[in-house]
Amino acid sequence: MTVIDPSITDAMREEAANWLIQLDEETSSEQQDAFQHWLNQDQRHNLVFSQMQNLWSAAQAPKKTNRLSQHLAITGLFLVATLLSLQLPWQYWQADYRTEIGKVQAITLPDGSVATLNTNSAIDVDFSHNQRRINLIRGEVLLDVSKDPRRPFVLATNKVNAKALGTIYSVAQHDNTSLVTVYESQVRVSSTSSQHSTLLNAGQQAVVDDSGIVKRDLKLASNPDWARQRLIFQNAPLKEVIARLQPYHSGMIKLSSDTTAHQRRFTGVLPSDDTEAAIKLLSSSMGLDVHSMTSWLTYLKPSAKP
After folding, report:
1. Rounded Cα distance, 289 and 299, in Å
2. Residues near 174 by Cβ (< 8 Å), separated by ≥ 6?
3. Regarding beta strands 252-255 and 97-98, do their DSSP bridges make them parallel or antiparallel, or are they unpaired?
4. Sign of CA dihedral 198, 202, 204, 207
5. Spatial CB neighbours of 132, under 8 Å, sequence gap ≥ 6
6. Where are the alpha helices (DSSP H) in 86-212?
7. Quick check: helix, strand or coil at residue 243?
8. 90-217 and 229-302: identical CATH topology
9. What is the pLDDT tens value at each position of the chain, 306 positions in all?
10. CA–CA separation, 83 vs 251, rounded Å?
11. Are strands 297-302 and 252-255 parallel, antiparallel or unpaired?
12. Dihedral (C-alpha) 279, 281, 282, 288: value to the nearest 10 degrees?
């Protein structure tokens, strides 16, 4: 029986999947040392890696078989990794509003405010006669808040309370970190784990975790690109582009370990509501071959063509 530890994050599962593939191939002593270092970093790493091994071994093709069998075995691993990453909290399924992977939805709230949910996100709405409160359960939300001086508007995560002062702002939850970004007016940000708070103006962002609040200035458009179902990149590393596209894709997108692939940079706009089209556009402009091993895994590597 596989034990599900709710403290295991999506990032840990992704790392474990990558290590399992690397170790299935020939590895150097440096890679073995790096793997051991990763295991020692967190006791949960051993657990999630063991889960990957056990679940994959049941469906893995025998070693020393043909290339197709090897590809099918790797596909099975990524299927397992994806299914594990979809162990969403019960609160997600019970949320007032939620979006599926690849979907962005704008919702008009009872007070006329608009909440735009990013992919794979969920919120609960709790409005009363003296307060308007949104609980972000998962993902990211953009808020265009209607003014009502008698009822403060607060968006809450497990790390932060973000009180609107008549504004447009977004809040994202990433494992143990919350990000608050202000596009218009001001937001009062308070940490739930300390007495720290700070005031954010338009063009500023706060990163909030157990260690406190870090404020930084950003160059922002009038609203985030994802709210328009577009992802905009300016000379971005290919690895970063794929990382941004991944949450909108139902399967996993993997980039070849070829160093030349990781050195490539991309400038352009990709549609987040059609990731298949985005992958085709990215591959054609970056000189990449696309290998789709079922809908669960898309593998990108530099084209062999000159």
Report:
1. 8
2. none
3. unpaired
4. positive
5. 109, 111, 113, 126, 148, 151, 152, 153, 154
6. 90-94
7. helix
8. no
9. 344 455 677 678 778 877 876 776 556 788 888 899 999 999 889 888 887 676 555 444 444 444 444 555 555 555 555 544 444 566 777 899 999 999 999 999 999 999 999 999 999 999 999 999 999 999 999 999 999 989 999 999 988 999 998 789 999 998 889 999 999 999 999 998 888 899 999 999 999 998 889 999 998 878 899 999 999 999 999 999 999 999 999 888 988 877 677 789 999 999 999 999 999 999 999 999 998 766 677 889 888 765
10. 10
11. parallel
12. 90
Which residue type, as a one-letter code, is found at position 161? N
Residues in the chain: 306
Tell which residue, 118, 87, 215, has the closest CA to residue 160: 215
Euclidean distance between CA atoms 175 and 15, whole angstroms: 15
Q: Where are the chain's structural domains?
A: 10-85, 90-217, 229-302
- Overall pTM > 0.85: no
Cβ proximity of 105 and 97 under 8 Å: yes
Determine contact, residues 38/49, Cβ cutoff 8 Å: no
What is the CATH T-level fold of the domain 90-217, as seen in this structure?
A: Jelly Rolls (2.60.120)
Question: Cα separation of 302 and 257, whole Å?
Answer: 10
Q: How far apart are CA 17 and CA 182, in angstroms?
A: 35
Type of residue at 270: L
- The CA distance from 12 to 120, in Å, is 18
Is residue 13 classed as helix, strand or coil in its secondary structure? helix
- Going by the DSSP 8-state scheme, the letter that residue 112 receives in this structure is S
Instruction: For residue 289, give both structure tokens.
Output: 């071959």
- Give the DSSP letter of residue 56: H
Let me know if domain 229-302 sits in CATH 3.55.50.30. Answer: yes
